[in-house]
Amino acid sequence: MTSTQTTSTTGTPDGAPYLEVTDLTVKFPTADGLVNAVSDLSYSVPLGRTLGIVGESGSGKSVSSMAVLGLHDARSARITGSIKVGGREVVGMDERDLRSLRGNTVSMIFQDALAALHPFYRVGQQLAEAYRVHHPSASKKEARARAIDMLDRVGIPSPKSRVDDFPHQFSGGMRQRVMIAMGLINDPALLIADEPTTALDVTVQAQILDLLQDLQREFNSAIIMITHDLGVIAEIADDVLVMYSGRAVEYGSTREILSHPEMPYTWGLLSSVPDVHSDTNARMIPIPGTPPSLLNPLPGCPFEPRCAHRDKVPGDLCSTTLPELRPGGRGAGHVKRCHLPDPDAIYEAEVLPEIAPDLAKEN
Amino acid sequence: MLGFVVRRLLSSLIVLLLASFVVFAVFYLGPSNPARPVCEGAGGRCTPERLVAIEKQMGLDKPVLSAYGEFMGGIVKGREIDFGASAYDCTAPCLGVSYDTRNFVTDELKERIVPTILLAIGGSIVFLVVGVTTGILAASRRGSSTDRLLVSGSLLVSSIPYYLLCLIAWIFLTLQTNIFPATGYFPITENPLKTIGGLLLPSLVLGFATAPAYARYTRGQMVETLGDDFVRTASAKGLPRRRVLFRHALRAAIVPIVTIFGLDFGALLAGTIFTEAIFSIDGIGRWGLEALDSPLDLPVITATVLVGATFIVVSNLVVDIAYGFLDPRVRIG
Ligand SMILES: Nc1ncnc2c1ncn2[C@@H]1O[C@H](COP(=O)(O)OP(=O)(O)OP(=O)(O)O)[C@@H](O)[C@H]1O
Ligand SMILES: [Mg+2]
User: Fold this and answer.
1) Which atom of ligand 1 is nearest to the CA of A66?
2) Residue A65 CA: which ligand is closest?
3) Is the entire prediction scored with pTM above 0.90?
4) C-alpha distance from A291 to closest chain B C-alpha (Å)
5) Mutate to test the pocket of ligand 1, among A36, A63, A76, A227 (most ligand atoms within 8 A of CB)
6) Are residues B187 and B56 part of one domain?
7) Are B267 and B273 in contact (CB under 8 A)?
8) What is the pLDDT of residue A315?
9) Which terminus of chain B, N or C, has less C-beta within 10 A?
10) What's chain A's Rg over C-alpha atoms?
């Protein structure tokens, strides 16, 4: 059901999106000044679909997703904008309501499962705890049975005995499965997976992604998949949100974004994907330069200092004016934050031959 | 696990032997002559010839190694002790006879150790409860005015020299007012309630003086674990804040705190010299201090050092074993 619906992007086939983020801004006051971790971010995810969020380290992927669970400390984070989960506003929600949301209707699985699981408790205890906090009437026995059931469901062999192991006794891939089991134990409607496969080798990574897709089919949940890796996006996401320096810089359906990217930063990400399937002519080119400081945002496009195509924009627009997130030449479902007048032509003429010579010839 | 314990016990034994030998040798070879008071106290004139004779009788003319060997041998199998005028049949474990009181050191040790243990326990309860609670509170409100107040308050307390704190407490709370009238050690066999009452003030002073260190240490550990990924996971599960704080963060932070506490407790059992001296408690610390008065009471000094070192070494071992229970990742075997 996922692949047939990828034609529309932000719109949903069946009514309102389950998660709707509008103009989300997250700032952290620090000794050095205000860190603008996320600025004016908007996106939405309907049930049964997967949004991939990509971007380099520090682009605000985790900060923005943690805001969905209200996980930021109210004293150290300034959050404005709106986050609606199933119609309920999360920004400014009181702790009680947030707690009933967390791990229940919305759950999150974290990148480094070894660090994210408590080292001193058996995985069964940790899973049962996640279950019981939202099912207060469940007995210890029921919670344990549920934990074993979940371990079984995520493909951990002999779950009846492994339920009593400590996290350090699992392999990396199995540990990540434990995390996923914990994230899914209360059948959440929205699952946020923050780089769940980054530390794993390619085969295990593929298994985990398959697992998530199977579970999504079963429960029709919405998934946010955070990653550095466009390969993961191509595999699993229906829509893609590309983030740079705390902002959305390109957003649309996965097919659109991967076939006709319109923002030089996305081009850069595409060039830096090591693609095991394509031929050896394809080159892996990391984007030169480093992301700008989040402390004192300069006027203009945040990617301008690193952009190889800024000369193609007339005048000093790139360094003076922040581009708005607007549809380019490919319809309202594909938006980008870039001043380039004809990005498609540039992509096909200059970028594609560099990164995928085969594809360039076909086009 | 068993192999680990045996190996540790053996190395501990070597440490004990070395420590006690060094102390024994320093005082044995030192200038103070324990035979002199014996000679002078025996009536009549203490002629040099008589002094030498008594030294010989007491075994003080032997080389240090064999004197030490004799002392240690007494612990295992008992020995005869001859003071010239009087001889003692000291049964194992024999730590000698005090030059000063002429009592068996082992018997005196059994009495002296009780107040020291009680004081160590009392003080520990106070500083664990006060210090650890303060640390948790400060960490959970990190950066708030509560946090700043607690941190600077604990700095203030720990900047007062300890003996001064003892003196102030004793003068104001025992001498001048009657808040803690009966302070000191009263034998537990007679009236346990009175014993507890008498040790209350010393325990409180010891506890409050040590608490700031525990508060700061706990705060540091808690601040660190509160930033750990698994604490974020606990919040993301929807657990109540208190459960996140205690079941998750504190559970991880407690391991290093227990380690430090084990070592501190061992040191407290070795004697709290200032506390015992100022509150006139006849514990191990005060005993060792008095034994240093001239003339040196060599058997008592050696015994206190041996006992203190044993406590410290054993608490080290207990901490290492406890670690295995507290942290499943280091569980051995
Ligand atoms: N509590 C905080 N106080 C101050 N700055 C913060 C805080 N949390 C995050 N930041 C900053 O916000 C920015 C975005 O961080 P975020 O963790 O969202 O990046 P990310 O896109 O998830 O990167 P990665 O791929 O490395 O996980 C970073 O520059 C980070 O230093
Ligand atoms: Mg991140």
Assistant:
1) 18
2) 1
3) no
4) 25
5) A63
6) no
7) no
8) 86
9) C
10) 21
